[in-house]
């Protein structure tokens, strides 16, 4: 009898511990609008689940102090460029290893292109810079992991990075700063000023990066470019770096980008070696499928994705893939039924790669759900993009879904509710 009592006590303690751990890391509010189908917000792990098991083993090793970082790369279009969704994920993941925050990710001065970006950091620039993106079938020059580039020949060119522009607190820090880019004749020398003296960056030709090593940088730096007359420099990314333990959440988003947009980034594999992703979160598809049903070819879409996945795997062979389905959206005044076809392609790709699917389409209630989300203040009037509150909620739900397998013996689903076309 005493043995049975001990067993029941142990079970009760285990359940209490599990509930406390889950509550500690749960980000999604308990009370949600009726249009948010929270029960559909779990991960659907497909195939033999081996890739996701590898990812979670890395997370456990990091939590045990056996590895420094677990790296995630979130890639997509305007949902990612806006930065609200991805930075919500980044901030929540940073809480998993205490108060110190690991690497901030790859940044770019989107203000040079006069377009939106994540305002929790700022990059002010001086001089004339010409930009281009991966939307063009013939880019003006090589592109990498950011999908955007800026070129200058201006003798006064510089930029100033402030990593904690919104909070004013030293939440994100760096003691190394990598500049990704290339010049016309190996003659450009980026430098910073420290106590009135120039400190030139170390150049790494194989990765096309220039690195500043300076513990005094902390969260702000101004980078100048010593450009000889007649030469030019092309900037494709900025990476604040440190050695802190934790999740490193990199995000790459370009408004309007589809899968072919990322395939035309010829330096993508080179730049991915900087990231070395353990998990890639795919949020590409809304622009590929924003067309009449008879114009969208699922096989072309699937094969484009396979090529992108192959390029990533050449850099990170054991990388896991997480596919975010297209959200419900409207095309020419009607719900876009291509979302159903994209979701099926993602299930197939996740099965092939032993990855997983996060079914945003189901969470929204299927076809027509974006109208309900708009009425609840979670979506923009165009019923394609989310409001800031909607993006933050998506970040909360994806974080909970991604972390749940660490705290539960049966956290995932392989079944998803199907929604008929209207």
Keywords:
11 helices, Jelly Rolls, 2 domains, Rossmann fold, 30% helix, 422 residues, six-stranded mixed beta sheet, alpha+beta, six-stranded antiparallel beta sheet
Protein described:
- It contains eleven helices and 19 strands.
- It is α+β, with helices and mostly antiparallel strands.
- A six-stranded mixed beta sheet has the order 1-19-16-15-2-14, sandwiched between helices.
- Strand 15, helix 7 and strand 16 form a beta-alpha-beta unit.
- The longest helix is centred in the N-terminal third of the chain and has 24 residues.
- The radius of gyration is 22 Å and the shape is globular.
In short:
The chain is α+β, with helices and mostly antiparallel strands and 422 residues long.
DSSP summary: helix tally: 11
How would you state the average pLDDT, rounded? 90
**How far is the first residue's CA from the last residue's CA?**
60 Å
**Which parts are unreliable, with pLDDT below 50 for 5 consecutive residues or more?**
1-24, 409-422
- Strand percentage lies at 15-25%
Beta strands, count: 19
Write the CATH homologous superfamily of the largest domain. SGNH hydrolase
The helix/strand order is HEHEHHEEEEEEEEEEEEHHEHEEEHEHHH
């Amino acid at each position: 009898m005493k043995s049975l009592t001990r067993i029941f006590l142990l079970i009760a303690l285990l359940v209490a511990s599990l509930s406390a751990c889950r509550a500690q890391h749960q980000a999604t509010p308990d009370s949600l609008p009726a249009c948010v189908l929270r029960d559909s917000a779990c991960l659907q792990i497909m195939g033999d689940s081996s890739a996701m098991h590898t990812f979670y083993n890395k997370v456990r090793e990091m939590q045990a102090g056996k590895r420094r970082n677990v790296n995630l790369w979130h890639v997509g279009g305007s949902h990612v460029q806006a930065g609200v969704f991805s930075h919500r994920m980044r901030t929540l993941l940073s809480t998993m290893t205490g108060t110190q925050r690991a690497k901030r990710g790859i940044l770019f001065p989107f203000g040079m292109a006069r377009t939106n970006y994540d305002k929790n950091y700022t990059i002010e620039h001086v001089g004339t810079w010409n930009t281009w993106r991966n939307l063009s079938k013939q880019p003006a020059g090589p592109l990498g992991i950011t999908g955007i580039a800026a070129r200058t020949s201006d003798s006064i060119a510089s930029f100033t990075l402030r990593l904690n522009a919104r909070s004013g607190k030293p939440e994100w820090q760096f003691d190394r700063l990598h500049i990704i880019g290339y010049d016309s004749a190996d003659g450009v020398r980026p430098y910073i000023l420290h106590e009135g003296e120039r400190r030139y960056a170390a150049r790494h030709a194989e990765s096309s990066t220039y690195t500043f090593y300076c513990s005094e940088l902390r969260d702000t730096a101004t980078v100048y470019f010593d450009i000889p007359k007649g030469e030019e420099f092309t900037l494709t990314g900025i990476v604040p770096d440190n050695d802190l333990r934790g999740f490193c959440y990199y995000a790459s988003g370009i408004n309007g980008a589809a899968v072919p947009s990322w395939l035309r980034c010829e330096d993508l594999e080179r730049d991915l070696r900087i990231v070395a992703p353990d998990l890639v979160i795919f949020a590409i598809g809304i622009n590929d499928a924003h067309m009449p049903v008879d114009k969208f070819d699922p096989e072309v879409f699937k094969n484009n994705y396979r090529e992108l996945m192959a390029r990533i795997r050449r850099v990170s062979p054991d990388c896991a893939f997480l596919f975010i389905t297209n959200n419900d959206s409207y095309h020419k005044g009607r719900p876009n039924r291509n979302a159903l076809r994209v979701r099926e392609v993602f299930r197939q790709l996740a099965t092939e790669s032993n990855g997983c699917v996060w079914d945003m389409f189901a969470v929204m209630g299927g076809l027509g759900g974006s109208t309900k989300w708009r009425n609840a203040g979670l979506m923009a009037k165009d019923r394609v993009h989310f409001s800031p509150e909607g993006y933050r909620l998506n970040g909360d739900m994806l974080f909970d879904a991604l972390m749940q397998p660490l705290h539960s013996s049966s956290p995932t689903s392989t079944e998803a509710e199907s929604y008929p076309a209207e």
